[in-house]
Amino acid sequence: MIGSLFVTGPAGTGKSTFCGAFKEWLTRSDYDSIIVNLDPGAEYLPYEPEIDIREFISLNDIMSEYSLGPNGAQVVASDLLIDNAEKIRSKLDLYEDYYVIFDTPGQIELFSFRPSSPMLVERLAGKKGMLAFIADSVVAQTPSGFISEKMLFGSVYSRFYIPMLFVLNKIDLIGDEVVDKIKSWEDDPDLLYGGFLDEKGEMVKDYFLNIINAFKESDIITKISPVSSKDMFGFDDIYSDMSNYFQGGEDTDTEYRDE
Amino acid sequence: MIGSLFVTGPAGTGKSTFCGAFKEWLTRSDYDSIIVNLDPGAEYLPYEPEIDIREFISLNDIMSEYSLGPNGAQVVASDLLIDNAEKIRSKLDLYEDYYVIFDTPGQIELFSFRPSSPMLVERLAGKKGMLAFIADSVVAQTPSGFISEKMLFGSVYSRFYIPMLFVLNKIDLIGDEVVDKIKSWEDDPDLLYGGFLDEKGEMVKDYFLNIINAFKESDIITKISPVSSKDMFGFDDIYSDMSNYFQGGEDTDTEYRDE
């Protein structure tokens, strides 16, 4: 394994689509990669995973075995991931010089907020793990939605505390102008503050401005990576960040190749 | 309706248990209240709801009707809540001088992060709605867990932007000393910062200190309400906050009655 990207984010932001499209982009760019599906409840996947947790964990079995409905079964299934870490690990070891993309369970808390998940990342990837937080462009196009996504990102980051990308997915749905607007909020908290005022009216003290500035003043969290899994746009940038982290930026030719 | 409390939080933090216990506390204190279950996927409820969304929405029906697995069906079911708002509303109108407790779907994003939910709250409660964010004491006892919970709280708050309580549930599991420690973090960001350093080692710039200070400098978000649904501890405080908001603090006798 060269490095692992654990793809997380709220349900419906396009995690699985991102995983499939990014894998295809890597293949076209001559980088070896595999996808590991970590969602025991996945019904349809837009890719063919090399390793699939559903070989080891069946949601239907859990529902009948523990007499649980879908809600409870999903929580139990996500807690069973750690018990299967060694089995996955031994399969992973077959892919030596590969990037590994981990597609995590559909709803964010089944992975990002389970107590065992940071341990799972450690067991599967050692020190070679990073996270991609997939944010939905449609939600992020309002100031309140953007702030909410950033705080959710921060919440996940606090749990894992490993390098993490803020991937603004589905930008094909909002267009370049809106992407630029979102980026301008990131660069200029006062603009975001003004936008929030326009959207929500009165402001609760300086709460949001403080939050926004806190993000702004931190290097790790300010970068937005706009992508479109549909158009395969922005993947060179994601790759370059990954490569930078895992290999100290030695392999940066992709940036130039695609420009 | 005197006022409505929408109870949200990650799966497993004890939302339904809190709803049931708080309702019992209100009844014992001679305040009229009802519980509305908004979780179409609830299998077992530790209370008897006066109004139940499962009368209108069936997860099993959705699974077969839309050919969906449990994952997808839960998302569809939560999006159907808004279509049933009027039906619930007409039942609510039967309870004039009541507090209404809304128990929301098990996983946080099925309610807190669906685009239609702020509209749902508006339709069900008008201007008489507030949120209770149920945080898990066991998670909140480490600095990183506490920060993560607070940011998740902030993320939800950004979406709804109505008064919101940070309810530290299950304090019976961590004991008074740990509750005091968590409260001291809230009052003194430097202490939390130090704790985070001890826990995680090196710090990414001033990111967390900025975040912590941003929370600290805002009145709306700094208060922690420790409760134990098991012991019915702390409910007088929750009630007093609710009453303050809905009735301008005119009914504050409960505070004294229970002391």
Question: What strand order characterises the main sheet of chain A?
Answer: 3-2-4-1-5-6-7
H-E order of chain A: EHEEHHHEHHEHHEHHHHEHH
| Mean pLDDT metric of chain A | 83
Give me the CATH superfamily of the domain at 3-139 and 159-171 and 224-246 in chain A: P-loop containing nucleotide triphosphate hydrolases
Q: State the helicity of chain A in percent bands.
A: 40-55%
CA distance, first residue to last residue of chain A: 27 Å
Shape of chain A: globular
Number of continuous helical runs of chain A: 14
Which pair has the most extensive contact?
A-B, 53 and 53 residues
At CATH level 3, the topology of the domain at 3-139 and 159-171 and 224-246 in chain A is Rossmann fold
Question: Main beta sheet of chain A, described?
Answer: 7 strands, parallel
* Assembly state of the chains shown: homodimer
Second-tier CATH architecture of the domain at 3-139 and 159-171 and 224-246 in chain A:
3-Layer(aba) Sandwich
Can you count the beta strands of chain A?
A: 7
Which CATH class of the domain at 3-139 and 159-171 and 224-246 in chain A applies here?
Alpha Beta
Rg of chain A, Cα atoms, Å: 19 Å
**Percent of sequence in beta strands of chain A:** 5-15%
